[in-house]
Description:
The complex is a heterodimer. Chain A is an alpha+beta fold.
Amino acid sequence: MQGVPPAPDRGSGSAPGAPSSDAALSPPAPALPATNGSLLSWLDRVIANLGNGIVLTDWDGRIVKTNAAYRQLVGTPEADLDGRSFAEFVHPADRDVNLALLERLKSGRIPFFEIENRYIRPDGREQWVAKWVSVFPVKGAQPLLFAIVSDATDRRRTDAQLRQSEVRYRAIFDQAPIGIAEVAPDGRFLSVNDALSRIVGRSPDELRTLRFADITHPDDLASDLDQLARLSNGEIETFAMHKRYLRPDGAPVWVNLTVSAVRSDDGDLLHYIGVVEDIQEAKEREAAELRRREQAELTAAVLTGLEDLRTPEAQLQHLVDLLSTHLGDYATVEVTDSDGERIRAIAHRDPNLVATLFHLRMHHALDDSDRRSVHQVALGRPLLITEVPSVLDDMGIPTESRLLFARLDPRSHMAVPMSLGGGVHSALVVGRVGDSSVPFTENDLSFLTDLADRVGGALVAADVRRREHQASLHFQQALLPARLAHAPTVSVCGSYAPAAEMLEVGGDWYDSIELDDGRLLLAVGDVVGHGLEAAAEMGRLRAGLAALATGEHDPGRLLTALDHFASGPLGADFATVVCAVITPDTGEVSYASAGHPPILLIGPTGDIRWLDKATSAPLCSGTEQSRSTVTTNLEPGSTLVLYSDGLVERRNQSLFDGLDRLAAKVSQMTDSPMAGLADRIISEMTKGIDPGDDIAVLAVRFEAASAAAFHFDLDADPAQLSALRRAMRDWLRGTGLDTTSTERAVLVVGEACANAVDHAYLAHEGGAQPITVRQWFDDHGLSIEVRDRGQWRPPGAHGNDRGRGTMIMEALTGRFERASTSGGTVVRMHLPLEARFPAGHASGGVRP
Amino acid sequence: MNDALATLEVDQDAERTVVRLLGEIDLSNAASLGAEITGAVTGHTGDVVIDLTTVTYIDTQGVRLLLQLARQPGITLSVVAPAESITGQVLRIAGLNEHLQVRPTLD
Lengths: 848, 107
């Protein structure tokens, strides 16, 4: 092996590994002594104390001369070096390179070479050295080889570390799952890794021609630049932000960007390093989550609104109002309900465009034959038009509609079918307007489709409930008395108002029953609960009271009996009842209340009293109650009001306020006609509010006997009939009644009395039995009552002639009733007089 | 008593006997009126017309009277009563026109 260690040619004459002092050591050829001996001794002196190792070998590489530094590097004393080849000390892995370079040097192709290589010391340790090797010409002799050798241990270590860190950085840079970019201060991409290239959808080469601003979403640029400025002036060390890059197709991609500045030792900004994390999926998930939440909230708002509204019109308007503000800019809906009624609702975020939309909808009314109508499509399946302008041209829309479309400026449009109880022609339409609006997506369409399904279902349910409500209402009204018993001196008028709320048919009721002693039982009750069940229970209580009243006339005991009845096996909910028994001749009133609000008594001059004694717990309270009766007297001209709590209870008001209001209202009504008085009380008390509960009112007025009624007693003597007719005619004409009605009344009373005389004659063989005729005006006409002490005999028992009287009475009256008790027979008739009754006929103190 | 309540006028020729009733007919006088009318038409063979135009009150007692007259052998009875009057209504409701002729006017 040859001596001087070779190395790859670096093609340069500089010797980075060698100290600069080496240059001074380069022996200038002219100064060299002529002989080897003298040369070597000169060299000895020059090199002996140099810090760098020096070695001279002969042309074949055998060591001729070394200095101490060299010997230290090779770890070998001078004595062991003479005549040895320098190559022995070179690490085997480095030898070939050394020798190859040496050959090139010796052949004169290169003037010198530099190399770093390892020496192997006798103790086996490696020693990194940097060598500078050249030829040392010797006059008249073979040249020598000359090398300057320095310890390269430290440099090797630093290089290795540097290289290692660079490799590591490159590896991270290139293979990192996150995007990394080095960005010049002017925003140009200096280098980008593959990950970034994938995220933004552009090749590294393309990116290096761009600035980051070129691919940043416009909305995010300002914030990015602002942060970068703060980073660049040293205000901050680093920043992070969520921003959007734009891919070549314009699609935004969300990233989490972290930027740091790389500075020189002087603090000058060299470049930025940006780390880019793709968070598009997370953003999409987040957006989808947000969208789902918003959609759920919208659905909830729509459905709750439908619950609260009563008419399909209001419900559909509510639907389009919400959709035009929360999903699109406009919305329309058109449904055909189960009655075949078409209902249309329209809303636009801009109220000025509602009319435009309306006209458009008219032009595009749902029509099977109109193929241009997008809604026709919607009848079968959902329709999504992401870009309306691009499809308008293809639709062959008439000019007029075009103008309307231009005004509306729809951008994106959805139409979905909606079914309302089997209605085929139903469509829900939502649109967004303006170029800047975001087009609807498939997700929006499926949401709207689902919403339409739900709304359709809710509307059908609401329709069913409405019908049920109507049915309950009819049922309840059927259960309320068709007519109220009254007396010559006692006018009675009742009214029932259902609660405004849907399905809130209640259990309030009223009744007026004639007891068999001629007194009147008045009652108002309230069954707790709502709906058909409460209405049914109300009917049961009413019937129960009427049945019990045949044997019991005392209000307190009547309530006790009613409680037993109501608490029976068919057992009811809690119910309150107030009842009063009034004696028509005297105005005596007995009353009792089972948990019910007190009866209002307004005197003839408007003075207020409450009949608030004789109270006990409601029916079905579960405990045996002692229920007392209190008796008082009415002055003629007094008005009694029995009512359910719905009349006086208001949200946020005390019951006492309600009672005071009722008393104040009714005290103004002492001269008010009885006809419709109960209705008027309800409307006065509920003016301007929606009663939350149903209301029953029974208004009763007591009049002095002489003023109110016609009363005629006669014996069962045919000769007295003409006197009766005369008295009747006088009285009826005195009230202003027309002749025809008067004669009709005279006739039916005559028939009834002829029968009564006949009974009396047959029963008592001519004995003078009293017959009593009473007549009075009520709400609707003339009430007639004829009582005798005999027994009625069925028609036909006395030949065909006998039934004719009944036929005439039935034919000429609105109502004809005959009731027989052991005490006698009562015929009650009523002549409806609505059309014929003259206004202001109140002469003789008779009230209509 | 009966005189005060109702009176009757009889117009008789070969063709017919017209009995005009004036006043009121009720349980108290129906029977005696029946007897009077029967007496007035007995022996005449022509038609009998009962004119109720001037009757101010008639009830089923009066209807019964008319039917009894109509059933008497040898009498062809007809009745005059304005349709819209209370008397006309009573006759109609009682079904009198099923048994005899009811005319609105005498001629």
